[in-house]
Specification:
Blueprint: H1 12-47, H2 51-70, H3 73-93, E1 99-105, E2 109-111, E3 116-124, E4 133-139, E5 142-148, E6 156-163, E7 169-173, E8 177-181, E9 188-192, E10 197-202, E11 222-228, E12 233-239, H4 251-257, E13 261-269, E14 272-277, H5 287-306, E15 310-315, E16 318-319, H6 325-334, H7 344-354, E17 360-366, H8 371-379, E18 386-392, E19 399-403, E20 406-411, H9 417-425
Parallel strand pairs: 2-10, 14-15, 14-17, 17-18, 18-20
Antiparallel strand pairs: 1-3, 3-6, 4-5, 4-8, 7-10, 8-9, 11-13, 12-13, 15-16, 19-20
Helix pairs in contact: 2-3, 5-6, 7-8
Length: about 425
């Protein structure tokens, strides 16, 4: 028992925790108000001052302090001169601009190497002339600068620009911003006029022109050895079993044999493509080879969608959207290669589990994948499914080989893809 007269003592950590909770409750409203004032009024003002501007202000304070402490009139004069420059810079950024800015990208989706053209139309929407100014347009990591002349009321100034599309990428274009700054760039004031837009630079693709038709049947699908009571491929007749659909009774045979006979069908499989695209950069000899693999997979997928086939595309990072060709190419554009533990073999196993009803499987990988790995990957494909491996080897001659039931197609250039697919179909 606790001796009489003694009170329990709380732990120091518990005391501090209670005190902190009480302080948060008491100061929370004031802190939120202070944060709102900072975000709406103080931060925009401070953001106008550039790094050079803050350096000049700090130098002015230090020079004035040194001049006052040691009686250096020269230091005080330099401090005053710095402050005068700062005050003059304020005059360059004062005033309000009234622009109407329209950012127009002719196409928001282009292929690598195609022209991406856009325009900026700027109009003076105020009732007074506007002084010359600069417009900045961020394009990815770069920034384009457009110089605006003195503009009369309702005057429109239009500029065209071209965006390089040398590599597959999602390029953020914008927002367009007007900039006012003093000659020394102590102060810099900018106003945003548009929202940013995404420009998709899709991978290059090649038209296969129905090359896949040689190993993918039409919509009725490929007959299998599995029997079904209802399908489109007739197989044989059998005795009627209670529960069978009476619509499938073959009446002529029933009348001849004096017992009910029903039609039996071979189960057919609708053409369903599955593509596994390895994004493991350890399986590619170079970045160019990786880009070639993406282009090859995109070309096959695009042709499948054009032929209205069912399509699934899978990478180590997960499945891609394949509802439309646009969705698929957008996701292809976002792919980022990285060294991974999961290889083409692991991806093939995941594909077999994810798309069990596939009729044709493409394994797209780089030149660093060995025949042993391809054999292991092919072993993961269910029996009865046509499997093909597309190995990209930059500069290699197009070739076709077999590893067991797996057809291996070597592609050295994107233009080789249609011809090797025709060889596979032959």
């Amino acid at each position: 028992m606790r001796p009489p007269g003694l009170r329990p003592q709380g732990r120091p950590s518990r005391v501090w925790s209670d005190a902190a909770g009480t302080a948060r409750l008491a100061l929370g409203p004031a802190w939120r108000i202070a944060g709102g004032v900072w975000g709406r009024h103080v931060r925009p003002v401070l953001s106008v001052v550039s790094v050079l501007g803050w350096s000049v202000l700090a130098a002015a304070v230090l020079l004035w302090a040194a001049g006052s402490a040691y009686g250096w009139q020269e230091a005080k004069a330099a401090a005053i001169a710095a402050l005068v420059l700062f005050v003059i810079a304020v005059g360059f950024i004062l005033g309000r601009s009234s622009y109407g800015v329209v950012l127009d990208l002719a196409r928001t989706r282009v292929a690598v190497g195609d022209s991406a053209v856009g325009s900026i139309a700027v109009s003076n929407t105020s009732a007074r002339p506007l002084l010359p100014a600069d417009l900045e347009l961020p394009v990815g990591a770069a920034t384009a600068v457009f110089h605006l002349p003195r503009m009369k009321p309702q005057q429109v100034q239009e500029d065209l620009f071209t965006i390089p599309t040398a590599r597959r990428a999602v390029i953020v274009v914008g927002p367009v911003r007007s900039v006012r700054a003093d000659p020394l760039h102590l102060l810099r004031r900018q106003v945003l006029w548009t929202e940013p837009e995404d420009l998709y630079v899709h991978p290059r693709t090649v038209a296969l022109a129905g090359s896949a038709a040689g190993f993918i049947r039409d919509l009725e699908g490929m007959p299998t050895t599995e029997l079904s009571s209802a399908d489109v491929s007739f197989h044989a007749l059998r005795d009627y079993v209670p529960g069978d659909d009476r619509r499938h009774i073959h009446w002529k045979t029933t009348a001849r044999t004096n017992k009910l006979m029903v039609r039996q069908f071979e189960e057919t499989r609708r053409a369903h493509l599955a593509i596994s695209l390895s994004i493991n950069t350890d399986e590619y000899a170079s970045d160019e080879e990786f880009e070639l693999a993406i282009s090859a997979a995109a070309s096959i997928g695009r042709q499948a969608i054009r032929e209205q086939r069912e399509l699934d595309v899978l990478t180590q990072a997960g499945p891609l959207r394949c509802e439309t060709g646009r969705n698929m190419l957008d996701d292809m554009t976002r792919i980022v290669g990285t060294p991974l533990r999961k290889s083409t073999v692991d991806l093939a196993r995941t594909l077999a589990d994810t798309v069990p009803n596939a009729s044709v499987v493409f394994l797209v990988a780089g030149s660093q994948v060995t025949p042993t790995q391809l054999r292991s990957a092919a072993a993961s494909v269910p029996p009865g499914v046509r499997s093909l491996a597309v190995l990209v080897d930059l500069g290699a001659a197009p070739a076709r080989a077999n590893i067991g039931d797996l057809t291996v197609l070597t592609v050295g250039d994107l233009s080789d893809l249609p011809s090797v697919l025709r060889k596979a179909a032959a």
